Hints:
By secondary structure, this protein is mainly alpha-helical. The protein has helices at 2-9, 14-48, 53-63, 66-77, 82-93, 95-103, 113-121, 125-132, 140-164, 170-194, 196-214, 223-241, and strands at 245-246, 250-251. A two-stranded antiparallel sheet has the order 1-2. Strand 1 (245-246) and strand 2 form a beta hairpin. Helix 2 packs antiparallel against helix 10 (170-194) and helix 8 packs parallel to helix 10. The chain is globular. Mean pLDDT is 81; it is low at 1-10 and 248-252.
Amino acid sequence: MKDLVKKETGAATTTDVRREVVSGLRDGTPIAMGYFAVAFSLGIIAKKAGLTAALGFVCSFFTRASAGEYGVYTLMAINAAYIEVVAMSLVANLRYMLMSAAFSQKIAPGTPWYHRVLMACCITDEVFGISVNHKGYTPPAYTYSAALVSTLCWASGCAAGVIAGGLLPHAIVSALSVALYGMFIAIIMPPSRTDRNVLYAVVASFALSGLCAIAPIVSEWSAGTRTIVLTVAISSVAAWLKPVKDNNHGEA
């Protein structure tokens, strides 16, 4: 009976929490390494926009979005209006609302609302990826620890980039940013190998993303808008054609 209550409510012992913290730190460390490299290049852009290392650290700690930060720093460098900065940030980061909604299905029933809010605030592309792939419900301790280690490296990388300024050659900075994309591919490949439906969705995502980048009209949309539209469309079709089965109640 106790095990059933624990399963339904998500209650965890101190040992469980400690184990999830260690697991989150372990899974978040590779993300953190990739984040540092990409954030370093963002720091160089932030330096050109007039940010100090301290400001770069704080901004990156609370933002953690490469496209969003790049857009903000670029607009700051040309003295854009506040409304332009806000609008650009909203479009570039709107996908995180979709991720948070999807992630809510992985949070155990009975989890306090403040944990749900904080876990949503921890979402980045990569933290979302490892959190939704967590076996069973994803406990707050796992997401918090993974987000903490990756966020500290992201913010530190931006601060280091601000300090370094434009000293490094552009080719080296560009090469460092490749690590993040390779890491994200590593996240989606294991489930693609074990689930053919996931593989089809991944292939469709790559193909349609490439087509939309060159298609008339659609190619004029921002990258963030195209990502949102494709995410909704592909996930909706996949859910309609191959709904996830619930072990207890049939189709979810």
